[in-house]
């Protein structure tokens, strides 16, 4: 049976990304299943962000294929893709316009996609991220880091996406705020039936957030782990073991909750 729930909404096969003659990503393959949170982890420079950017159309696909709902994506992403797949970046300061109110920034994606019920959508999105309408008339510098990231998440949710590409979404935040935003993301995945592709260098974060995790090193996939394996340290490569050892002793205040 293939009713759209069984087909991987996103799959990557033999992906390679080259910048001039530098190969940032080599021959990486994985499927992201409907409703799961799939993690990409690895040290700085291992190619995690580049994979996310290549999927989103922000980095060149030199080799291999990215499929969305089973169909290879084209160089110019389709309208359906641009609506269904939204990105959230590490630095909400960089991704929000400094001189525009929250309301104006949230209006933009609705305008671009030509959707109606603008204010209803905006109010709904801002409430879903735990803020209220009074935030709509503030500028980014009048918000805390956590509030800014909530606005960036609200902006991604406005167009009712299916998949969020999350690039270190909490790495710029203090640990306590980080836990709040991670909990928000876990709740949203459940209530909105979202699918996540989650990039982080932080093993505790991906271990708490993800059902499956691909460990990356120097642009290559090293090992595919379940969240359970990562949390209990049952890894098979030396590299994954090294990463785990390096992250020992640091546990953010997040607790694992089973989805569904
Ligand atoms: N636009 C670009 N032009 C040239 N090289 C790039 C470009 N983008 C990324 N790279 C290089 O590709 C490699 C992988 O970078 P990438 O940002 O994907 O790694 P990462 O695992 O996400 O690391 P980090 O956690 O530091 O972001 C790095 O060596 C980086 O310098």
From TrEMBL:
Keywords: ATP-binding, Nucleotide-binding, Transport. The gene is dppF2. GO terms for molecular function: ATP binding; ATP hydrolysis activity. The keyword Zinc does not apply. Signal peptide: none annotated. The keyword Nucleotide-binding applies. Residues 10-243 form the ABC transporter domain. This is Peptide ABC transporter ATP-binding protein. InterPro entries: AAA+_ATPase, ABC_transp_ATP-bind, ABC_transporter-like_ATP-bd, ABC_transporter-like_CS, P-loop_NTPase. PROSITE patterns: ABC_TRANSPORTER_1, ABC_TRANSPORTER_2. It comes from the Bacteria. CDD domains: ABC_NikE_OppD_transporters.
């Amino acid at each position: 049976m293939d009713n759209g729930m069984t087909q991987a909404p996103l799959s990557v096969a033999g992906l390679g990304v080259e910048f001039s003659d530098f190969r940032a990503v080599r021959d990486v393959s994985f499927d992201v299943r409907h409703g799961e949170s799939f993690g990409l982890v690895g040290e700085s420079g291992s190619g995690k962000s580049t994979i996310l950017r290549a999927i989103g159309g922000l980095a060149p696909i030199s080799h291999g294929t990215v499929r969305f709902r089973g169909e290879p994506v084209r160089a110019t992403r389709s309208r359906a893709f641009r609506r269904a797949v939204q990105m959230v970046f590490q630095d909400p300061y960089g991704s929000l316009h400094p001189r525009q109110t929250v309301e104006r920034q949230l209006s933009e994606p609705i305008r671009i996609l030509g959707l109606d019920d603008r204010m209803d959508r905006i109010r709904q999105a801002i409430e879903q991220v735990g803020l209220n309408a009074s935030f709509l008339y503030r500028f980014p510098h009048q918000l805390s880091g956590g509030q800014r990231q909530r606005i960036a998440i609200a902006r991604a949710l406005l167009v009712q996406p299916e998949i969020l590409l999350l690039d270190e979404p909490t790495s710029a935040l203090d640990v306590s705020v980080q836990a709040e935003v991670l909990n928000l993301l876990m709740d949203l995945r459940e209530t909105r039936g979202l699918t996540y592709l989650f990039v982080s260098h932080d093993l505790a974060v991906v271990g708490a957030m993800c059902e499956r995790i691909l460990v990356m090193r120097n642009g290559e996939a090293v090992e595919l782990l379940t969240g359970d394996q990562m949390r209990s340290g049952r890894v098979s490569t030396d590299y994954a073991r090294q990463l785990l050892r390096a992250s020992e002793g640091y546990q953010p205040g997040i607790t694992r909750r089973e989805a569904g």
